[in-house]
Amino acid sequence: MTNKELITELSERLGWTQIKVSEVLAETIEQMNTKLAENASITIPNFGVFQTRKKSERISVNPQTQQRFLVPPKISVNFKPSTILKEKYK
Amino acid sequence: MQDLIDLLTSDGTLTKEEAEKFVIEFFSVIEQGLSKDELVKIKDFGTFKLTPIQERESIDVNTQEKIIIPAHRRVSFLPAQILKNLVNKPFAHFETTPLNDGIVLENVEQEVAFGNNNGEDSLKEDDEKDLHEDKNDTVTFIPANAKNDLSDLTEKEAPHSDQKQPIATTTNNQPANFDERRSSDDKPPIDISTESKSNKKPKRPFLWLYITMAPFMILVVIFAYNFYKAKDHPAKEDIEESAIPKPIQKPSPAILDTLSHEPTPPVDSVYSVKTVKMIRGKTLRLIALDEFGSREFWVYIYLKNKDKIKNPDVVPVGLELVLPRKTEYAMDAKNPEDVAKAKKLGDEEMKKFW
User: Fold this and answer.
1) Are the C-beta atoms of residues B315 and B353 closer than 8 Å to each other?
2) pLDDT at position B232, please?
3) Model pTM greater than 0.90?
4) pLDDT digits (tens, 9 = 90+) for B164-199
5) Are A69 and B97 inside 8 Å of each other by CB?
6) Are the C-beta atoms of B112 and B154 separated by less than 8 Å?
7) Nearest to B322 by CA among B281, B283, B272
8) Half-sphere exposure (CA, 13 Å, Cβ side) for A87?
9) CA B62 to CA B52: how far, in whole Å?
10) Is A33 on the interface with B (CB under 8 A)?
Protein backbone atom coordinates (compact mmCIF):
# COMPACT_ATOMS: atom_id res chain seq x y z
CA MET A 1 0.00 0.00 0.00
CA THR A 2 1.51 3.28 -1.07
CA ASN A 3 0.95 6.73 0.31
CA LYS A 4 -1.59 7.40 -2.44
CA GLU A 5 -3.64 4.32 -1.67
CA LEU A 6 -3.52 5.20 1.97
CA ILE A 7 -4.96 8.65 1.29
CA THR A 8 -7.68 7.22 -0.95
CA GLU A 9 -8.67 4.67 1.65
CA LEU A 10 -8.71 7.26 4.39
CA SER A 11 -10.79 9.71 2.39
CA GLU A 12 -13.34 6.98 1.71
CA ARG A 13 -13.54 6.00 5.33
CA LEU A 14 -13.76 9.51 6.68
CA GLY A 15 -15.79 11.03 3.90
CA TRP A 16 -13.27 13.82 3.50
CA THR A 17 -11.74 15.10 0.30
CA GLN A 18 -8.39 13.62 -0.64
CA ILE A 19 -6.80 17.05 -0.38
CA LYS A 20 -7.95 17.44 3.17
CA VAL A 21 -6.80 13.96 4.05
CA SER A 22 -3.37 14.49 2.59
CA GLU A 23 -3.03 17.79 4.42
CA VAL A 24 -4.05 16.31 7.74
CA LEU A 25 -1.84 13.30 7.10
CA ALA A 26 1.16 15.50 6.39
CA GLU A 27 0.41 17.46 9.56
CA THR A 28 0.13 14.26 11.60
CA ILE A 29 3.39 12.92 10.25
CA GLU A 30 5.09 16.22 10.93
CA GLN A 31 3.86 16.29 14.51
CA MET A 32 4.95 12.72 15.07
CA ASN A 33 8.35 13.39 13.55
CA THR A 34 8.84 16.45 15.75
CA LYS A 35 7.86 14.46 18.81
CA LEU A 36 10.31 11.73 17.89
CA ALA A 37 13.02 14.29 17.22
CA GLU A 38 12.50 15.45 20.79
CA ASN A 39 13.15 11.87 21.86
CA ALA A 40 9.60 11.50 23.11
CA SER A 41 7.88 8.19 22.60
CA ILE A 42 4.54 7.92 20.86
CA THR A 43 2.15 5.31 22.10
CA ILE A 44 -0.78 4.30 19.93
CA PRO A 45 -3.20 2.04 21.78
CA ASN A 46 -3.65 -1.36 20.17
CA PHE A 47 -1.02 -0.51 17.62
CA GLY A 48 2.37 0.00 19.16
CA VAL A 49 5.00 2.37 20.43
CA PHE A 50 7.39 4.54 18.47
CA GLN A 51 10.52 5.22 20.40
CA THR A 52 13.98 6.56 19.83
CA ARG A 53 16.90 4.45 20.81
CA LYS A 54 20.47 5.54 21.16
CA LYS A 55 22.99 3.25 19.58
CA SER A 56 26.39 3.71 21.12
CA GLU A 57 29.46 4.12 19.03
CA ARG A 58 31.27 1.00 18.01
CA ILE A 59 34.29 -0.16 16.14
CA SER A 60 33.66 -2.05 12.99
CA VAL A 61 36.22 -3.92 10.98
CA ASN A 62 36.29 -4.34 7.28
CA PRO A 63 36.84 -8.09 7.02
CA GLN A 64 38.73 -7.77 3.77
CA THR A 65 41.19 -5.06 4.68
CA GLN A 66 41.11 -5.47 8.47
CA GLN A 67 40.79 -1.73 8.65
CA ARG A 68 39.01 -0.56 11.75
CA PHE A 69 36.47 2.22 11.77
CA LEU A 70 35.02 4.15 14.61
CA VAL A 71 31.33 4.27 13.85
CA PRO A 72 29.79 7.24 15.64
CA PRO A 73 26.83 6.89 17.98
CA LYS A 74 23.43 7.50 16.55
CA ILE A 75 19.82 7.78 17.52
CA SER A 76 17.36 5.70 15.62
CA VAL A 77 13.62 5.21 15.61
CA ASN A 78 12.24 1.97 16.86
CA PHE A 79 8.72 0.64 16.50
CA LYS A 80 7.45 -1.93 18.93
CA PRO A 81 4.17 -3.45 17.86
CA SER A 82 1.60 -4.02 20.56
CA THR A 83 0.77 -7.58 21.51
CA ILE A 84 -2.60 -7.27 19.81
CA LEU A 85 -0.98 -6.25 16.55
CA LYS A 86 1.61 -9.00 16.89
CA GLU A 87 -1.03 -11.65 17.43
CA LYS A 88 -3.06 -10.40 14.52
CA TYR A 89 -0.36 -11.10 11.97
CA LYS A 90 1.06 -14.23 13.47
CA MET B 1 -1.96 9.49 21.21
CA GLN B 2 -3.98 12.03 23.14
CA ASP B 3 -1.09 14.44 22.74
CA LEU B 4 -1.11 13.80 19.04
CA ILE B 5 -4.80 14.64 18.82
CA ASP B 6 -4.26 17.80 20.84
CA LEU B 7 -1.42 18.83 18.57
CA LEU B 8 -3.57 18.26 15.51
CA THR B 9 -6.40 20.39 16.83
CA SER B 10 -4.07 23.14 18.02
CA ASP B 11 -3.90 24.90 14.67
CA GLY B 12 -7.67 25.23 14.60
CA THR B 13 -8.51 23.59 11.29
CA LEU B 14 -9.77 20.38 12.87
CA THR B 15 -12.21 19.70 15.64
CA LYS B 16 -11.28 17.32 18.35
CA GLU B 17 -13.69 14.66 17.08
CA GLU B 18 -12.30 14.92 13.57
CA ALA B 19 -8.73 14.65 14.74
CA GLU B 20 -9.51 11.68 16.92
CA LYS B 21 -11.37 9.94 14.18
CA PHE B 22 -8.57 10.65 11.77
CA VAL B 23 -5.88 9.22 14.02
CA ILE B 24 -7.90 6.09 14.76
CA GLU B 25 -8.71 5.54 11.11
CA PHE B 26 -5.13 6.27 10.11
CA PHE B 27 -3.75 3.44 12.16
CA SER B 28 -6.55 1.06 11.30
CA VAL B 29 -5.90 1.70 7.62
CA ILE B 30 -2.26 0.88 8.21
CA GLU B 31 -3.35 -2.39 9.78
CA GLN B 32 -5.64 -3.08 6.87
CA GLY B 33 -2.89 -2.29 4.39
CA LEU B 34 -0.60 -4.64 6.23
CA SER B 35 -3.02 -7.51 5.97
CA LYS B 36 -3.66 -6.75 2.33
CA ASP B 37 -0.21 -6.03 0.89
CA GLU B 38 2.10 -6.78 3.82
CA LEU B 39 3.58 -3.36 3.16
CA VAL B 40 2.44 0.19 3.92
CA LYS B 41 4.48 3.15 2.81
CA ILE B 42 3.92 6.50 4.44
CA LYS B 43 5.62 9.48 2.93
CA ASP B 44 8.23 11.21 5.12
CA PHE B 45 7.56 8.77 7.93
CA GLY B 46 8.55 5.27 7.00
CA THR B 47 7.46 1.86 5.87
CA PHE B 48 5.57 -0.77 7.80
CA LYS B 49 6.31 -4.25 6.66
CA LEU B 50 5.47 -7.79 7.60
CA THR B 51 8.66 -9.79 7.67
CA PRO B 52 8.42 -13.57 7.67
CA ILE B 53 10.27 -15.36 10.41
CA GLN B 54 11.28 -18.97 10.03
CA GLU B 55 10.38 -21.52 12.59
CA ARG B 56 13.10 -22.28 15.07
CA GLU B 57 13.76 -24.37 18.11
CA SER B 58 13.90 -22.92 21.53
CA ILE B 59 13.72 -24.02 25.12
CA ASP B 60 10.79 -23.28 27.34
CA VAL B 61 12.00 -20.98 30.07
CA ASN B 62 9.88 -22.61 32.74
CA THR B 63 9.85 -26.28 31.85
CA GLN B 64 13.26 -26.51 30.12
CA GLU B 65 11.57 -28.49 27.37
CA LYS B 66 12.43 -28.10 23.77
CA ILE B 67 9.73 -26.28 21.91
CA ILE B 68 9.43 -25.19 18.35
CA ILE B 69 8.53 -21.61 17.69
CA PRO B 70 6.40 -21.81 14.56
CA ALA B 71 7.07 -19.63 11.56
CA HIS B 72 5.29 -16.32 11.90
CA ARG B 73 5.35 -12.81 10.63
CA ARG B 74 6.51 -9.76 12.46
CA VAL B 75 5.56 -6.16 11.96
CA SER B 76 8.66 -4.14 11.29
CA PHE B 77 9.02 -0.45 10.74
CA LEU B 78 11.70 1.20 8.65
CA PRO B 79 11.92 4.93 9.27
CA ALA B 80 12.19 7.15 6.22
CA GLN B 81 15.49 8.92 5.60
CA ILE B 82 13.94 12.24 6.55
CA LEU B 83 12.82 10.90 9.93
CA LYS B 84 16.17 9.21 10.49
CA ASN B 85 18.01 12.46 9.91
CA LEU B 86 15.61 14.41 12.06
CA VAL B 87 16.00 12.08 15.00
CA ASN B 88 19.74 11.75 14.62
CA LYS B 89 20.29 15.50 14.50
CA PRO B 90 22.29 15.72 17.76
CA PHE B 91 24.84 13.30 16.35
CA ALA B 92 24.65 14.39 12.76
CA HIS B 93 28.08 15.99 12.72
CA PHE B 94 29.85 12.71 13.42
CA GLU B 95 31.44 10.79 10.65
CA THR B 96 32.82 7.32 10.51
CA THR B 97 36.56 7.59 10.82
CA PRO B 98 39.28 5.05 10.27
CA LEU B 99 41.25 4.12 13.36
CA ASN B 100 44.96 3.78 13.66
CA ASP B 101 46.51 1.02 15.68
CA GLY B 102 47.43 1.29 19.31
CA ILE B 103 45.51 4.43 19.98
CA VAL B 104 44.33 5.15 23.45
CA LEU B 105 41.59 7.66 23.84
CA GLU B 106 41.58 9.78 26.90
CA ASN B 107 39.91 12.90 27.95
CA VAL B 108 41.10 14.19 31.23
CA GLU B 109 39.28 17.44 30.76
CA GLN B 110 36.10 15.71 31.79
CA GLU B 111 37.77 12.76 33.30
CA VAL B 112 35.82 10.53 31.07
CA ALA B 113 37.95 7.83 29.65
CA PHE B 114 37.10 6.41 26.32
CA GLY B 115 37.50 2.78 25.53
CA ASN B 116 39.13 1.88 22.33
CA ASN B 117 39.62 -1.69 21.39
CA ASN B 118 42.82 -2.89 20.01
CA GLY B 119 40.86 -5.54 18.24
CA GLU B 120 41.38 -8.37 20.63
CA ASP B 121 41.96 -7.12 24.12
CA SER B 122 39.02 -4.91 24.82
CA LEU B 123 38.63 -6.30 28.28
CA LYS B 124 41.76 -4.85 29.61
CA GLU B 125 41.28 -1.60 27.84
CA ASP B 126 39.44 0.22 30.56
CA ASP B 127 41.92 -0.66 33.19
CA GLU B 128 44.69 0.06 30.84
CA LYS B 129 43.36 3.51 30.38
CA ASP B 130 43.39 4.13 34.06
CA LEU B 131 46.93 3.01 34.03
CA HIS B 132 47.83 5.44 31.36
CA GLU B 133 46.27 8.15 33.36
CA ASP B 134 48.19 7.11 36.38
CA LYS B 135 51.40 6.91 34.54
CA ASN B 136 51.18 10.13 32.76
CA ASP B 137 49.66 11.97 35.64
CA THR B 138 48.64 15.24 34.09
CA VAL B 139 49.06 14.08 30.57
CA THR B 140 46.14 13.98 28.25
CA PHE B 141 46.13 12.68 24.78
CA ILE B 142 43.54 12.50 22.15
CA PRO B 143 44.54 10.92 18.90
CA ALA B 144 43.56 11.34 15.35
CA ASN B 145 40.11 9.93 15.53
CA ALA B 146 39.18 12.42 18.17
CA LYS B 147 38.12 14.54 15.30
CA ASN B 148 34.64 13.76 16.43
CA ASP B 149 34.97 16.05 19.36
CA LEU B 150 35.07 13.45 22.01
CA SER B 151 34.23 15.65 24.89
CA ASP B 152 31.02 16.45 23.19
CA LEU B 153 30.37 12.85 22.66
CA THR B 154 30.92 11.96 26.24
CA GLU B 155 28.37 14.41 27.48
CA LYS B 156 25.70 12.88 25.40
CA GLU B 157 26.93 9.47 26.22
CA ALA B 158 26.87 9.82 29.92
CA PRO B 159 23.22 9.05 30.58
CA HIS B 160 23.41 5.98 28.43
CA SER B 161 26.55 4.54 29.76
CA ASP B 162 25.02 1.34 30.98
CA GLN B 163 24.34 0.06 27.54
CA LYS B 164 27.68 -1.59 27.63
CA GLN B 165 28.63 -5.18 27.47
CA PRO B 166 28.11 -6.65 30.91
CA ILE B 167 31.70 -7.70 31.21
CA ALA B 168 33.02 -4.30 30.45
CA THR B 169 30.71 -2.87 33.05
CA THR B 170 32.20 -4.78 35.88
CA THR B 171 35.63 -3.51 35.21
CA ASN B 172 34.50 -0.04 34.31
CA ASN B 173 32.12 0.99 36.92
CA GLN B 174 34.48 0.73 39.73
CA PRO B 175 36.64 3.64 38.78
CA ALA B 176 33.47 5.57 38.08
CA ASN B 177 32.06 4.88 41.49
CA PHE B 178 35.29 5.86 43.00
CA ASP B 179 35.19 9.17 41.24
CA GLU B 180 31.72 9.68 42.51
CA ARG B 181 32.79 9.22 46.05
CA ARG B 182 35.74 11.40 45.61
CA SER B 183 34.12 14.43 44.11
CA SER B 184 30.79 14.84 45.75
CA ASP B 185 30.30 18.34 44.45
CA ASP B 186 31.15 17.49 40.91
CA LYS B 187 29.09 15.56 38.47
CA PRO B 188 30.23 11.97 38.66
CA PRO B 189 32.20 11.13 35.60
CA ILE B 190 31.44 7.91 33.91
CA ASP B 191 33.72 5.65 32.05
CA ILE B 192 32.57 4.69 28.68
CA SER B 193 33.88 2.00 26.52
CA THR B 194 33.19 1.47 22.94
CA GLU B 195 31.28 -1.62 22.25
CA SER B 196 33.44 -4.05 20.49
CA LYS B 197 31.78 -5.85 17.74
CA SER B 198 35.16 -6.47 16.37
CA ASN B 199 36.52 -8.62 19.15
CA LYS B 200 38.14 -11.67 17.80
CA LYS B 201 38.03 -13.45 21.13
CA PRO B 202 37.71 -12.11 24.63
CA LYS B 203 40.65 -12.92 26.82
CA ARG B 204 39.13 -14.55 29.82
CA PRO B 205 42.22 -14.76 32.05
CA PHE B 206 42.69 -11.02 31.78
CA LEU B 207 39.12 -10.43 32.75
CA TRP B 208 39.45 -12.35 35.97
CA LEU B 209 42.77 -10.80 36.72
CA TYR B 210 41.25 -7.37 36.38
CA ILE B 211 38.17 -8.13 38.36
CA THR B 212 40.30 -9.28 41.23
CA MET B 213 42.68 -6.41 40.82
CA ALA B 214 40.02 -3.73 40.71
CA PRO B 215 39.36 -3.46 44.49
CA PHE B 216 43.08 -3.24 45.16
CA MET B 217 43.45 -0.56 42.60
CA ILE B 218 40.62 1.41 44.10
CA LEU B 219 42.22 1.21 47.52
CA VAL B 220 45.53 2.34 46.19
CA VAL B 221 43.97 5.17 44.26
CA ILE B 222 42.01 6.35 47.29
CA PHE B 223 45.15 6.24 49.35
CA ALA B 224 47.08 8.10 46.72
CA TYR B 225 44.37 10.68 46.43
CA ASN B 226 44.28 11.39 50.13
CA PHE B 227 48.00 11.68 50.13
CA TYR B 228 47.77 14.01 47.22
CA LYS B 229 45.14 16.13 48.80
CA ALA B 230 47.23 16.46 51.91
CA LYS B 231 49.92 17.97 49.79
CA ASP B 232 47.28 20.26 48.38
CA HIS B 233 47.74 20.49 44.68
CA PRO B 234 44.86 22.69 43.67
CA ALA B 235 45.41 22.64 39.95
CA LYS B 236 45.44 18.90 39.68
CA GLU B 237 42.20 17.95 41.23
CA ASP B 238 41.04 16.40 38.04
CA ILE B 239 43.71 13.88 37.62
CA GLU B 240 43.71 10.34 38.71
CA GLU B 241 46.74 9.41 40.67
CA SER B 242 48.10 6.09 41.64
CA ALA B 243 51.39 4.48 41.13
CA ILE B 244 50.82 0.77 40.86
CA PRO B 245 53.20 -0.94 38.53
CA LYS B 246 51.25 -2.47 35.71
CA PRO B 247 52.46 -5.86 34.74
CA ILE B 248 50.39 -6.57 31.68
CA GLN B 249 50.52 -3.31 30.01
CA LYS B 250 53.20 -2.63 27.49
CA PRO B 251 53.69 1.04 26.80
CA SER B 252 52.97 1.59 23.15
CA PRO B 253 54.53 4.38 21.15
CA ALA B 254 51.23 6.18 21.35
CA ILE B 255 51.47 6.42 25.11
CA LEU B 256 55.01 7.64 25.08
CA ASP B 257 53.83 10.17 22.63
CA THR B 258 51.41 11.53 25.13
CA LEU B 259 54.23 12.77 27.25
CA SER B 260 54.92 15.47 24.77
CA HIS B 261 51.31 16.59 24.85
CA GLU B 262 51.29 17.90 28.33
CA PRO B 263 48.71 20.58 28.71
CA THR B 264 49.93 23.96 29.69
CA PRO B 265 49.14 24.97 33.25
CA PRO B 266 46.38 27.48 33.78
CA VAL B 267 47.54 30.96 32.99
CA ASP B 268 46.29 33.94 34.89
CA SER B 269 45.38 36.40 32.27
CA VAL B 270 44.74 40.06 32.75
CA TYR B 271 42.95 40.88 29.56
CA SER B 272 40.45 43.58 29.03
CA VAL B 273 38.61 41.51 26.47
CA LYS B 274 36.06 38.90 27.33
CA THR B 275 37.45 35.73 28.78
CA VAL B 276 35.90 32.39 29.47
CA LYS B 277 37.13 29.97 32.06
CA MET B 278 37.34 26.39 30.95
CA ILE B 279 35.15 24.33 33.20
CA ARG B 280 34.64 20.65 33.32
CA GLY B 281 32.39 19.47 30.54
CA LYS B 282 33.03 22.49 28.34
CA THR B 283 34.66 22.18 25.00
CA LEU B 284 35.88 24.78 22.60
CA ARG B 285 33.00 23.87 20.35
CA LEU B 286 30.46 24.36 23.10
CA ILE B 287 31.92 27.72 24.02
CA ALA B 288 31.83 28.75 20.38
CA LEU B 289 28.23 27.67 20.20
CA ASP B 290 27.33 29.70 23.26
CA GLU B 291 29.28 32.80 22.36
CA PHE B 292 29.12 32.98 18.60
CA GLY B 293 26.16 30.82 17.66
CA SER B 294 27.99 28.11 15.75
CA ARG B 295 30.26 25.35 16.95
CA GLU B 296 32.48 25.67 13.92
CA PHE B 297 33.83 28.96 15.22
CA TRP B 298 35.77 27.12 17.89
CA VAL B 299 38.78 27.35 15.64
CA TYR B 300 38.93 31.10 16.15
CA ILE B 301 38.94 30.70 19.91
CA TYR B 302 41.70 28.20 19.44
CA LEU B 303 43.71 30.50 17.19
CA LYS B 304 43.30 33.34 19.66
CA ASN B 305 44.61 31.16 22.47
CA LYS B 306 47.10 29.19 20.47
CA ASP B 307 49.89 30.04 22.89
CA LYS B 308 47.95 28.42 25.70
CA ILE B 309 46.32 25.48 23.99
CA LYS B 310 48.68 22.92 22.62
CA ASN B 311 46.02 20.58 21.39
CA PRO B 312 42.51 21.92 20.82
CA ASP B 313 41.06 18.60 21.89
CA VAL B 314 42.74 18.83 25.26
CA VAL B 315 42.05 22.05 27.03
CA PRO B 316 42.88 21.92 30.73
CA VAL B 317 40.15 22.71 33.20
CA GLY B 318 40.52 26.13 34.72
CA LEU B 319 42.27 27.66 31.73
CA GLU B 320 41.23 31.21 31.00
CA LEU B 321 40.43 31.58 27.33
CA VAL B 322 40.44 34.93 25.62
CA LEU B 323 37.51 35.20 23.28
CA PRO B 324 38.14 36.87 19.97
CA ARG B 325 36.08 39.95 19.28
CA LYS B 326 33.29 39.31 16.86
CA THR B 327 34.79 41.81 14.48
CA GLU B 328 38.14 40.09 14.45
CA TYR B 329 37.07 37.21 12.26
CA ALA B 330 34.15 36.63 9.96
CA MET B 331 31.88 35.04 12.50
CA ASP B 332 28.32 35.25 11.40
CA ALA B 333 26.56 32.08 12.39
CA LYS B 334 23.79 32.87 9.95
CA ASN B 335 26.19 33.16 7.06
CA PRO B 336 26.84 29.68 5.71
CA GLU B 337 30.03 30.89 4.02
CA ASP B 338 31.55 31.98 7.31
CA VAL B 339 30.61 28.71 8.91
CA ALA B 340 32.01 26.70 6.03
CA LYS B 341 35.21 28.72 6.14
CA ALA B 342 35.56 28.15 9.86
CA LYS B 343 34.88 24.45 9.42
CA LYS B 344 37.55 24.17 6.76
CA LEU B 345 40.01 26.05 8.92
CA GLY B 346 39.11 23.88 11.89
CA ASP B 347 39.61 20.69 9.91
CA GLU B 348 43.01 21.91 8.78
CA GLU B 349 44.02 22.75 12.33
CA MET B 350 42.85 19.35 13.53
CA LYS B 351 44.91 17.62 10.88
CA LYS B 352 48.02 18.87 12.60
CA PHE B 353 47.18 16.69 15.53
CA TRP B 354 46.63 13.51 13.61
Assistant:
1) no
2) 55
3) no
4) 334 333 333 344 343 434 434 443 444 444 334 344
5) yes
6) yes
7) B272
8) 4
9) 27
10) yes
Low-confidence ranges of chain B (pLDDT < 50): 106-203, 233-271
Contact yes or no for A1 and B198 at CB 8 A: no
Q: Is A19 on the interface with B (CB under 8 A)?
A: no
Q: What is the mean pLDDT of each run of 10 residues along chain A (90 residues)?
A: 86 86 85 86 87 86 84 87 83
Buried b or exposed e, range A32-65, using 16+ CB within 10 angstroms: bbebbbeeeebbbeebbebbbebbbbbbebeeee
Dihedral sign, CA of B301, B305, B309, B315? negative
Secondary structure of B102-147 as H, E, C letters: CCCECCCCCCCCECCCCCCCHHHHHHHHHHHHHHHCCCCCCCHHHH
Complex ipTM: 0.85
Residue B259 C-beta-side C-alpha neighbours within 13 Å: 6
Question: Residue B8: which of A14, A27, A44 has the nearest Cβ?
Answer: A27
At residue B57, what is the residue type? E
Give how far B52 is from chain A: nearest CA, Å.
9
Compute the distance between CA of residue B178 and CA of residue B71 in angstroms, rounded to an integer.
Answer: 49
Q: Which of B73, B85, B10 is nearest to B46 (CA)?
A: B85
Of B254, B246, B300, give the one whose Cα is nearest residue B273: B300
Q: Report the CATH number of the A41-90 domain.
A: 4.10.520.10
Amino acid B208: pLDDT: 67
> Which sequence spans correspond to the domains of chain A?
1-38, 41-90
